[in-house]
Amino acid sequence: MNHEVVVVGGGIGGLTVAALLAERGVDVCLVERESRVGGCVASFEKFGYSFEPGYGLYSGWQPDEIHDRVFSELPVEAPQVHLLEPAYQVRLPDQSEIAISGDTQQFEEGLRRNFPECVDFAVAFYRKLADLSAVLRRELQRAPDFLSASTPRRTYNLLREGRIGAEIIKVARQSTFQHLGGASPRFRRFIDVQLQALAQGTSTEVNYLLAALALSAPGEGIFGIQGAASRLADILAQSIKRSGGRIRLNTPALRLSYDSSGTPRGVDLLSGETVIVSKAIISNLTLWDTYGKLIGLNRTPTEIRRQLSRLRSWGAYLLYLGIDEDTAASLASDHLLVLSDWQEDQEYDPETRQLMIAVAPSWDPRAPSGKRAVTVHFFTDVEGWFTFHKDETELEQRDQQMLELCWKRLHAAMPELGSAIEIIDTANPRTFYDLTRRKLGMVGGFIPSGDRFWLNEPSYSTSLANVFAVGDTTQPGGIAALTRSALVLANRLTAR
Ligand SMILES: Cc1cc2nc3c(=O)[nH]c(=O)nc-3n(C[C@H](O)[C@H](O)[C@H](O)COP(=O)(O)OP(=O)(O)OC[C@H]3O[C@@H](n4cnc5c(N)ncnc54)[C@H](O)[C@@H]3O)c2cc1C
After folding, report:
1. How far is the CA of 350 from the centre of ligand 1 (A)?
2. Among 216, 347, 396, 407, whose CB has the most other CB atoms within 10 angstroms?
3. What ligand 1 atom has the least distance to the C-alpha of 55?
4. How many angstroms separate the CA atoms of 281 and 276, rounded?
5. Separation of 235 CA from ligand 1 center, angstroms?
6. What is the mean pLDDT of each run of 10 residues along the chain (496 residues)?
């Protein structure tokens, strides 16, 4: 089989770039090892429930924003989305609750009520984030590749934005923590728990400008997707086919195929077949697997190997639950982010102290009549899930222990759930590994580093000229950022 471009992996990143390329007339083939597309967002179905593995909080769906821009090119309708108001609610260990609302006045009232000890600081902190993020979003809207633009181009654009633009240049290497000097320990933890959920790291780990984008997103609008994010994946797959592209399911890629000069010429499939390409190979695998599996470690430059060995992601432990509709309707928000311990005088540990409850919305219950599907997310360190197990029973025991612990933590955090919830199933890093083959089942992108915001080179670059990467380990920021990086890559390959 010969194609201009082959995309390995049918996660949101791979699907989006393939859909754009196919509609722009490129002969593209996407290979996916599973029997369906979606990767991390593929819904889990059981007993009449359809569970969304993610939180169900999606940005970039406003008119003229990134999804609008991508779908305006595609021959399919975008999925239906609904604005979530509030986007989510944060519950702190002293039971104070703050609605993260898009209504600034209401949100600031919440800050004043809940953080009397540092109210002026808290309001000013969020206002500054909103100013910074408004400029960054405007620049990203003008030029989706803004984060990897050359320093002179970036500087010129930002200086045009005046005082805030100049401030962005100044703080680009600073961590969020450096801007929390006037915060009370309570307010700092309020920021930590959100950054951990939205950006995979705490205030010391997450860059200040990245925090501005993440924490200001509710002010711009957070949306739920009708049919969950797996619907987005299915629509992108339809788009690829409608534009003449090809999708091959149940087709695991093994490695790149090289010609005698060492240039990649295609992809060897597990079946023994080789797909030959004339233009480009796009990996939608994590960077570890792009190099470790596709390119091959023996062809990976030492410096890249060193960098990859230092990078880590978290694993996820999920409870898939059913909840009675009446109880679900009485909750203040469908999304509740809970911090259960202040963790004073110690490093923030997300593993045992925070959880996110995501209830399917009333407009899309994804459940048998009178019920709604719920996903509860806990961070978990992946190593323990992959230590040697004599047999499957040992793994089941580990899952059972984790389930009991998480079940207790859930009820302690939300006693109002009482007996209105039932367990349908669980997911752990082994499940994610089986579903997506991501190294050690690590999901959600890298644990960030506080001093990094600009990209030195485009996020799609690899060490090989005709091999590109798109995925959440190349670009942090959830599905909106992933979609933006897919657009940037499609533009690069079609010279737009
Ligand atoms: C718990 C959780 C909550 C989240 N919540 C949100 C949220 O609320 N909002 C948001 O925007 N984002 C959220 N995210 C992030 C988002 O879901 C992911 O970052 C995104 O889906 C990852 O997409 P990807 O394109 O990187 O590819 P992946 O989803 O990793 O897909 C890669 C694909 O490649 C396939 N593959 C692997 N190996 C091979 C091979 N050898 N040959 C062929 N195919 C192969 C896999 O089967 C898979 O389909 C969440 C993530 C997690 C884990």
Report:
1. 21
2. 216
3. 8
4. 9
5. 16
6. 96 98 98 98 98 98 96 98 97 96 96 97 98 97 95 96 97 97 97 97 97 96 98 98 98 98 97 98 97 97 96 97 97 96 91 95 98 98 84 87 96 93 97 96 92 92 98 94 97 93
pLDDT of residue 395: 86
Determine if ligand 1 sits within 6 Å of the CB of residue 224. Answer: no
Q: What distance in Å separates the CA atoms of residue 289 and residue 266, rounded to the nearest whole number?
A: 17
pLDDT of residue 352: 85
pLDDT digits (tens, 9 = 90+) for 320-366: 999 999 999 999 999 999 999 998 888 899 998 999 999 999 999 99
Task: Kindly report the protein residue whose alpha carbon is nearest to atom 38 of ligand 1.
Answer: 437
Pocket test for ligand 1, best of 37, 57, 284 (most atoms within 8 A of CB): 284
What is the C-alpha separation between 360 and 339, in angstroms, rounded? 21
Per the CB < 8 A criterion, the answer to whether 10 and 38 are in contact is yes
Contact 151, 457 (CB under 8 A): no
Pocket test for ligand 1, best of 40, 65, 288 (most atoms within 8 A of CB): 40
- Whole-number Å distance, alpha carbon 202 to ligand 1 midpoint, is 22
Q: Which numbered atom of ligand 1 lies nearest the CA of 252?
A: 42
What residues contact residue 139 under an 8 Å CB cut-off, 6+ apart?
146, 157, 158, 161
Distance of alpha carbon 82 from alpha carbon 335, whole angstroms: 14
The predicted pLDDT at position 391 comes to 75
The neighbour count for residue 327, using CB atoms within 10 Å, is: 17
Nearest to 112 by CA among 129, 96, 132: 96
**481 C-alpha to ligand 1 centroid (Å):** 13
Q: What angle do CA 378, 379, 381 make, to 5 degrees?
A: 135
Q: How far apart, in whole angstroms, are the C-alpha atoms of residue 66 and residue 64?
A: 7
Helix (H) or strand (E) holding 315: strand 315-324
Residue 450 CB–ligand 1 contact under 6 Å: no
200 lines ligand 1 (CB under 6 A): no
- Name residue 217's amino acid: A
Sign of CA dihedral 406, 477, 429, 50: positive
479 lines ligand 1 (CB under 6 A): yes
Q: Who contacts 387 (Cβ-Cβ below 8 Å, separation ≥6)?
A: none
Ligand 1 centroid from CA 285, angstroms: 9
